[in-house]
Design brief:
single chain, Metallo-beta-lactamase, Chain A, seven-stranded mixed beta sheet, 14 strands
Length: 245
C-alpha cells in the first residue's frame, strides 16, 4: 500500500509546497482537499473517489472546486465527499455558493464516520482539539495501517493517542518548532516535541511531519537532530513524496 503526499503545507501554498492532500491511488481514497488536489488527475487508478475531510477550513477544502476538471475529463463513476454532518451544508452553501463557484458538481456529500473503506479496509475517526473542530483518521487494511492527524495541538496525554497505537505510519501535523507553544495553542496547531512524544507513546513505526509552516523552511526550523533523542523514526514530509506502508 502506498500513500502519496500531494500537499504538505498549512494555511497557504508556497513556492515548494501545496496545502493538505494525501492520496491512496490504488483504493481511490483522498484525505483532505487542499490546493494540491490538482495533482490527483495523474494518479487515478479507480473509477471512484472517496474524499475524507478532516475539517472544512479553506486550506483543506478549496481543492474540492478543482473537481470540476476531474469530473469532466476522468472516467469516474462516483465521487463521494465524507465530512462531519454539521459541515455539509456550510460547504454546499458557501464554498459552492453560486457567487463563488457557479457550477453544480456531480458528487455526493455523506456524513463522515468510522466504517468500511474500499478493498476491505476500515476507517476509524476520532475528534481532535482545533478551533471549529477537526477529525483524525486511522485507516487499516490487513497488514497495513496509516493514521492522519492534522490541525490539532499535540499532547501525549490527549485522548486521540489511543487510536494511533502501533500504526505503521503516522502522518501528523507539525506547524511550529519548539518555542512557539503560545501561538500553536492559540491557532490549534502543534510544536515538534509534543508530536514526537505522541509518536513515542503510541509506539508508531514511522512518523512523518506535515502541515508545515509555509513561511519558513521546516528542514532548518524543525530540529530533527534533537528529535532523534525522543523518536528517531521521524522525517519531514515533502510534496509528491510516496510512502509505502
Amino acid at each position: 500500500m502506498k500513500v502519496h503526499l500531494l500537499g504538505t503545507a498549512g494555511y497557504h501554498p508556497s513556492e515548494s509546497r501545496h496545502t493538505a492532500c494525501l492520496m491512496l491511488p490504488e483504493v481511490g481514497v483522498i484525505l483532505d482537499a487542499g490546493t494540491a488536489m490538482f495533482r490527483v488527475a495523474k494518479l487515478l487508478q479507480t473509477r471512484q473517489l472517496d474524499i475524507y475531510l478532516s475539517h472544512t477550513h479553506l486550506d483543506h477544502v478549496v481543492g474540492l472546486t478543482y473537481l470540476l476538471d476531474l469530473l469532466q475529463t476522468a472516467p469516474l463513476d462516483r465521487v463521494t465527499i465524507h465530512v462531519e454532518t454539521a459541515k455539509i451544508d456550510p460547504l454546499r452553501t458557501h464554498l459552492f455558493s453560486e457567487t463563488l463557484f457557479p457550477v453544480t458538481l456531480q458528487c455526493d456529500f455523506v456524513p463522515l464516520g468510522s466504517g468500511p473503506l474500499p478493498n476491505g479496509g476500515t476507517l476509524t475517526t476520532f475528534p481532535l482539539d482545533h478551533p471549529g473542530g477537526s477529525v483524525g483518521m486511522r485507516l487499516d487494511w490487513p497488514g497495513h495501517s496509516l493514521a492522519y492527524v492534522t490541525d490539532t495541538t499535540a499532547r501525549a496525554d490527549a485522548d486521540y493517542v489511543r487510536h494511533l497505537q502501533s500504526v505503521d505510519v503516522l502522518v501528523h501535523e507539525c506547524n511550529f518548532p519548539d518555542g512557539e507553544e503560545p501561538f500553536a495553542t492559540l491557532t490549534g496547531h502543534s510544536c515538534l516535541t509534543p508530536v514526537l512524544e505522541v509518536a513515542k507513546k503510541a509506539l508508531v513505526k514511522r512518523l512523518i511531519l506535515t502541515h508545515l509552516n509555509p513561511l519558513d523552511d521546516p528542514t532548518t526550523r524543525l530540529d530533527l537532530a534533537a528529535a532523534a533523542g525522543i523518536f528517531p523514526a521521524t522525517e519531514i514530509a515533502h510534496d509528491l513524496q510516496i510512502v509505502a506502508f
